[in-house]
Amino acid sequence: MASLTESVGKLPLRLRNFFARYPPQVYSALVAPRPTAPEGEASAEQNLPSPYTPDREAKGAHKEDREAFSFSRALLHNDPSNQNPFLPRKIFTTGKWIGPRYGLRQQADLVKLAIKYNVEPLLPPSTKSTEYKQARLAERGLRIKGTGIGQKVKGHKWERTMEARLEDRRKAMTEMPEMIRLWKQRGHGRGWRQWPKR
């Protein structure tokens, strides 16, 4: 416990004030429940599909299903008894939403400071946290259609037909010696054919 107190004393005032108001024992990402995929869905890391799409019917990802499980959304946990200061919250009596206590710019500044001092896991879950950004990148891809988990790339026509053409070429190369032998047997390999003059 003394080492934690010493390390907190070395933090900048802004982080110390934040941890005084929102203690890590209650609000941090370490105490938040870890999201797990529902039993019916396989985890995205287990079976990554090939991004190559050989047929024209499978065209990239469709619109995002808001009801489907998303690891990145599950990371943003908001406990009703201890509201996350980085997330908006709903007043259940009126049904209205209140914005987060810390805006996105303030969240980004706090996360940068926490990364600098190696205390990022002590912050509450946020859209600016490194873990959330990595999960989001894995789900969405590299901002190029088809590079995310479960998405497919349509590609150019020459890319879609390349496998079939390479297979035809390989088959023709294996049959080439037999074709040459038959060609010479019929007498076609003796020289140039003389075309009749008109």
From TrEMBL:
GO terms for cellular component: mitochondrial large ribosomal subunit. It comes from the Eukaryota. GO terms for molecular function: structural constituent of ribosome. Residues 14-185 form the Large ribosomal subunit protein mL59 domain. Residues 36-64 are annotated as: Disordered. Residues 54-64 have a biased composition (Basic and acidic residues). This is Large ribosomal subunit protein mL59 domain-containing protein. It comes from Penicillium cosmopolitanum.
